[in-house]
User: What shape does this take?
Amino acid sequence: MKQKLVVLTGAGISAESGFSTFRDSGGLWEQYSVEEVASHEGWERNPNLVNDFYNGLRRQLFAAKPNRGHEVLAELEEDFDVSVITQNVDDLHERAGSTKVVHLHGELLKVCSSRNPDDPRYIQTLTPENAEVAHGALAGDGSLLRPFIVFFGESVPKLEEAARLTSQADAFAIIGSSLAVYPAAGLVHYVPKGAPVYLIDPKEVRVPYGVEAEVIQQVASTGVEELARRLRKK
Assistant: This one.
């Protein structure tokens, strides 16, 4: 039976693919405020602005490609039972070939009902040919179509699944996450005692109190290769 490798990824793994991060210098939060484009209040005030923002983000995503970090995680499925828990809303893990991906904060290429965002009957997947949400476009229940994104202040529907996966990990890796956004950052506390924790980031990241981690201070494209070497040696 393959060992279970659970990976938490953040914006840092997608930055090398040319997909803008939100928090870094030059990131999207310097161009738009959270309140405008990533909160329920912002949506209520100006749904057209919110949809226009995510339309633009989709165009950027279609131009991006998975990097070596994404690819190596997919390749690790040959030797490990890999589950990727991502804070990212892009589909770069799936495009690289990862088969078990949990999106904590939603998916950019999906839209949903604004009345009940998690109702699967009204969730639609967009394609490069049909990626623009027009002003006033409606979901199947008659409400405005909104991005299938977990806005700030909303509950995280996939959190329970992510915690369950983490609690079963034989090894846990954090890649490109600042560990500043909760509840995702709290997942590390579900790692079983004795399971190794790896942290991959070119910058210093403060690890939560009581957690010991092997630090690989590299960008994702090279850091995940190093992670693969260490895991295969064990």
Q: What stands out?
A: The CA atoms of residues 112 and 123 lie 4 Å apart. The chain has two domains: 1-19+66-105+155-234, 22-63+111-149. The longest strand covers residues 106-113.
